[in-house]
Amino acid sequence: MATENSDRNFIGRGWSFPPQFDFSSKTVGMTEGEEDIDNSLFILLSTVVGERVMDMTYGCNLDALVFESLDSSMITFIKSKIEKAILFYEARIELQNINMNTQDILQGVILIEIEYIVSATNNRYNFVFPFWKEEGTEIESIVRFNK
């Protein structure tokens, strides 16, 4: 369908993440459409503000919050940071909801679930960003010890 093809072109095309190179054909792996948006969201949420030389304001700074206690005000703060970052840096989508799945918090994992609508196609998607630190894997042994 011609309309769907032009909508996908509007959504965009970019380098795959992490970058993949095909040395035989001398090309770079590319992503298109919704996969490109998911890659963009992953990069946005995992980038520290000031890390990008050409755009020092790009990013979300979630790493600074890794060791903060997760109460309701911190959840609201994290959601606000994500919402602001998406508003400024991902114009291809309309954010619908951000949910913090804390089911595996004792293992040091929080799943940030982002529901969005692609503006060009009006299709609804979700993206899950795993927020954890590998050092947090020791928490499970501490919890067992205290039981």
Span of the ends, CA to CA: 60 Å
Q: Residue share in helices?
A: 25-40%
Structural class: alpha+beta
Unreliable runs: 136-147
Tell me how many strands there are. 7
Element pattern in H and E: HEEEEHHEEEH
Protein model, in words:
The chain contains four helices and seven strands; from the N terminus they run αββββααβββα. With 147 residues, it is α+β, with helices and mostly antiparallel strands. The chain has one domain (2-146): Nuclear Transport Factor 2, Chain: A (Roll). The strands form three sheets. Strands 5-6-7 form a three-stranded antiparallel β-sheet, with helices on one face. It has a two-stranded antiparallel ribbon with strand order 1-4. The protein is globular, with a radius of gyration of 18 Å. Residues 136-147 have low confidence and may be disordered.
What structural keywords apply?
147 residues; alpha+beta; Nuclear Transport Factor 2, Chain: A; 3-stranded antiparallel beta sheet; two-stranded antiparallel sheet; 4 helices; 34% helix; globular; disordered C terminus
Short description:
With 147 residues, this protein is an alpha+beta fold.
Write the layout of secondary structure elements.
Blueprint lengths: L1 H10 L1 E3 L5 E2 L4 E2 L1 E3 H14 L25 H18 L3 E9 L7 E10 L4 E10 L6 H8 L1
Antiparallel strand pairs: 1-4, 2-3, 5-6, 6-7
Helix pairs in contact: 1-2
